[in-house]
Amino acid sequence: MNITVFNNLEKLYQKSAETFVELAEKSIQKHDKFVVALSGGSSPKAIFQLLATKEYAEKVEWSKVYFFWVDERWVSLDNDKSNAKMTFETLLNHVPVHQNHIFPMYKDGVEPEEFAKEYETQIRNVLGNDGVFDFILLGMGDDGHTASLFPGEEILNEKEKWVDAYYLKPQEMYRITLTAPIINNAENILVVAFGESKKHALNEVLNGAYNPQLYPLQLINKKDTFQFFTDEKAMS
User: Fold this and answer.
1) Number of domain units in the chain
2) What is the domain range of residue 170?
3) Residue 224: pLDDT above 90?
């Protein structure tokens, strides 16, 4: 595991965008495609906005990039709470991605649990049965959750499914998410988490006793290609 502590967020966002560009180049050289799963939230939004600028966008062979999502609120794609909507507005509408390489985690007229099975099939169609994403971008909530793997939820025990959906009672809404097994399969994982509010959970995830029911990010393997970008406020 590699932890990088930044003294300002602009540098963190820049390094995140550079990481995306570097991994895209390596993956495309290796097997002619770059398959990613992206998160929502304010941190990824800033990274996507950078990637859409000329400085970064010109360095990526976008026609060979495949976009999946790590998780999603079960809302329509035009809803402001949709992670996919945010990604389209900040990145996908501004770079020459093939539309059939984009796989939003939502579909009208289908139950979320049913679509979770369909989404797993979509992943298998691109990645095969090994299910190895080239790159997964994760965040961490103040409670230590990542993706839609929230503390105390049954989904934390999932060992077989790659994608699952469930009703999250505290938020009174359905969530659909990649599970820990498929996330852990990824070639490269980057977690971006910073700020004073993350301090307690971050300390527990990195240094505390293993208790993923309380701090779900602990489910994610801290292997050599696992990177953690944070700041001094979170690490103090």
Assistant:
1) 1
2) 2-235
3) no
